[in-house]
Design brief:
Structural class: mainly alpha
Strand content: under 5%
Strand order of the largest sheet: 1-2
Distance between the termini: 72 Å
Radius of gyration: 24 Å
Length: 132
């Protein structure tokens, strides 16, 4: 069993985030000790790691709650969870493509600037007139 502080260290989230997730009902079945402090077991920690991943994927708190409700239904909700994850994956692939395009743009600009600084390329601008 782990305290909130220990869970935060293991999962890599802030205390405030963990507290928020608990208050929002995103961490069901957390036991309490004799002092009424939350006591997290390995299943809670594994679930929190899943939540952390879903959050990094861009899921909203509302969507995370929907996913959790599906999980609480057991294996009967696997098709809904698969669908939800498939949609999330599509969104991530689109974001990844945009990031790759952005990185290519930056790489191209860096090469251009290197050429200008080396005197190999004449500097031009889309924003200002350049006088020779």
């Amino acid at each position: 069993m782990c305290t909130m502080k220990e869970v935060c260290e293991e999962v890599g989230m802030t205390y405030e985030t963990l507290k928020f997730y608990c208050k929002e009902g995103l961490v069901p079945n957390v036991k309490r000790d004799q002092h009424n402090y939350r006591d997290f077991d390995e299943r809670n920690i594994a679930w929190l790691k899943s939540l952390q991943c879903l959050r990094h994927c861009g899921l909203s708190i509302k969507d995370m709650k929907i996913y959790m409700e599906y999980c609480l239904q057991g294996s009967s909700s696997i098709p809904q969870r698969k669908e939800m994850l498939a949609k999330t994956n599509e969104i991530l692939l689109e974001k990844m493509q945009l990031l790759q395009q952005s990185m290519a743009f930056i790489k191209e600009k860096q090469a251009y600037f290197d050429g200008v600084l080396a005197g190999e390329i004449k500097y031009t601008s889309n924003l200002i007139d350049i006088e020779d």
